[in-house]
Amino acid sequence: MKSFTTLSLILLSCSCGNPEQNETDYQQEEINLDTTTQVGNEIIRPNYPNNLNSIWDSVEFIADWFKHDAKDSKTLENVPNDFTSFYDEFISDSSYQKKSIDFTGFLGVIGECDSTIRLHNSNWDYDKWDFRDFFNQEEGWDDRIYVKKNVFYYEFDLIEIGIIYRRGFLKIDGVWKMVFEEVNTC
Q: What is the pLDDT of residue 4?
């Protein structure tokens, strides 16, 4: 019995730690959001820092990257014209949609109450949902778009609950590509 108690105390002391030390590095230190891979003047994608410890750290990093130095708006007036025509086809043609997702650099996540689903080429389902039809249409939502050169990002934020849906797009070699999606269903 004495050895069982001793073993339990050792295991308990090893598993407990200072909560501040157990926080992720992303939350503890400031990350430079100005780092990108570029070709000439064209943004290709954000460079992920090495200290992201979880998929959720990566989600927060890329969402922050999309918003950094971007013009935000609660209206759709600033949606680039070429993005509008791209998005019309993106939501109306399943093969075009799949070709318009940059799966090599794609971060896609569905957060459910008790699980996380990583989205990728083999489990992608065609999605014809048009965010423009629901943008700031309901009371209690704080929906925003963020626009900067070759970058378009939108998020749907249910006040007092949090982000429900967000997507990020980059113009790569002159063509819009989706590189980020997060859906929270819980």
A: 31
